[in-house]
Amino acid sequence: MRATRSIQTLVVITFLLLTVNRVSAQSVHVAVGKQGSIPKSCENVSPAVIEGRLDIMALRREANCKGSGDMLIEYTYVMEYTSHSKDKKGKEESETRVFEVYIPTLKDGANTRGVLIMTSRNGVPVPPEKMEKVRSEAGKDLEKEENRIAKQKITDPAISLPPVVGMKPLGMYPRMTATGFAGFKRRGVTLDVHTVLQQATFTYLGREDIDGRENLIFSFAPNPQGSFDPFEGYVARLKGKAWIDVKDRIVTRLEGWPTSAPVSISELSDTPSLPLAVYVKMIRLPDGNWMPSESRVMASEYPDLFNGVVADAIVKYTDYQRFKIESKDVKIEAPRVP
């Protein structure tokens, strides 16, 4: 296999659960990487024909490319993470935490974790006197990480390869992973739009206007020849719907249910009594980039679907602000209210 020209973008929201059926003792982190101008998934990709005879395969490749960007590293944002579970007796437990997310400045080929500042837990804000200390420590962490990245030698051969022909992404799909342990066995589930685009089969359903933008609607179903990572095996038992923006050719929304759901694809979205198993929503920012708005894995609703994980993970992304920051004398302040 030849070396790829660019580093594969890694955007992972990882939630580490000490047990697979409880929401306590969790660690949250955001992992990102910076790639070259044309990701591997965009090499030799051309615009798909969508008028007349729709080329679904070409559109899937284009939508896969359009969400393969690394532009999330150019923003600060607010991330709300809610976890929820219920035991065999029906007792429910939930927790919501809100974080400000700051990404260290990266160079091509580098990877890092975002600096997270928790601002509230279950609706209770962190006291101002504590926040001042937390922000000061976060600024030091950000400066330390940027200094490490600046000194890092990138050895991946992909960086030095000559330019290739391809398409540039317009956004960045989230990749969310929740992991935990059942006894001594590690279990987990990963939600990634790319996996559905690459491994499921798609059928065209029609068109729909969403927030003033025209979208193509598709149903998707398991592909018998699909190949999955261990945490994504549930996709082989997932059916649902996907919306692709007509102009920007990027997935704007994805909804999924188990294939065992007792209704047809066309009836799924109109059946409120049937909870979603997975959900992804994207938002188009004023600068034209598409960023995550919400991701959900509703494992408590379908305990047999998600590899033994039965705790829900819901992430909402808001308040995107594009930034430029110098690593010297870093000081993190509360975001300005528009």
Would you write up a description of this structure?
With 338 residues, the chain is mainly beta. It has one domain. Helix content is 14%, strand content 37%. It is built from four helices and 16 strands. The protein has helices at 56-66, 128-151, 193-199, 265-268, and strands at residues 12-16, 27-33, 75-86, 92-102, 111-113, 115-121, 124-125, 175-182, 185-192, 201-210, 213-221, 238-245, 251-258, 278-284, 290-297, 312-322. An eleven-stranded antiparallel beta sheet has the order 7-6-4-3-16-15-14-13-12-11-10. It is globular and about 60 Å long. Mean pLDDT is 82; it is low at 1-12, 15-25 and 325-330.
Keywords:
mainly beta, 11-stranded antiparallel beta sheet, 338 residues, single chain, 16 strands
State the major sheet: 11 strands, antiparallel
- Measure the end-to-end span: 49 Å
Portion of residues in beta strands equals: 35-45%
How is the largest sheet built, in terms of strand order? Answer: 7-6-4-3-16-15-14-13-12-11-10
- Gyration radius over CA: 20 Å
The low-confidence runs, each spanning 5 or more residues with pLDDT under 50, are 1-12, 15-25, 325-330
Number of domains: 1
Number of helices: 4
Specify the overall morphology: globular
- Structural class, by secondary structure, is mainly beta
Strand segment tally: 16
Helix content: 10-25%
> What's the mean pLDDT score?
82
* Order of H and E elements: EEHEEEEEHEEHEEEEHEEE
